[in-house]
Amino acid sequence: MLAVVAPGLASPQSQLPFAIPAGMGVEVLGAETLRAFHEPFTGTDSWILVERTLALPSPGNGFIVAWDPEARPGKLWVAVGEKETFGAADLLRFFSWRANARDFHEIGAPPAGATTARCA
To answer: In the chain, where are the structural domains located?
Structure first.
């Protein structure tokens, strides 16, 4: 489960496993049908659990909370935003980003000189 906690959102409709700070509300985003996702630049495979656009009603700082209702241990990779844009300086960091993503997915480094591709 994911929740966005921010000013101007409604009070929670049910008990949550975390406190909502004063002056903030919550929008709970339940998991939808799992959708496979292959990230070609890192050669990693994931699932998209929820994909939503949420307009926040008030300015201010907010945060995203993630939890498993069954309290199972695990990892969660969250992407926030509408599109990725990279500049020249980002390209210099690509190999460390790819290594970090592959470490997170526990798949190790690709063979030296290899590029990733997906065959259908």
So the answer is: 2-104
**Tokens 């409604």 appear where?**
10
Specify whether the backbone of 87 is left (phi greater than 0), alpha (psi in -120 to 50) or beta. Answer: beta
pLDDT-based confidence at residue 120 (cuts at 50, 70, 90) = very low
Question: Is 24 within 8 Å of 5 (Cβ atoms)?
Answer: yes
| Burial readout 101-120 (b: 16 or more C-beta within 10 A, e: otherwise) | bbeebeeeeeeeeeeeeeee
* Cα→Cα distances 17→50, 59, 64, 71, Å: 19, 25, 13, 10
Nearest to 65 by CA among 26, 104, 32, 8: 26
With 0.85 as the threshold, say if the pTM is over it.
no
Alpha carbon distance 106, 112 (integer Å): 17
The closest of 3, 6, 31, 35 to 21, measured between CA atoms, is 6
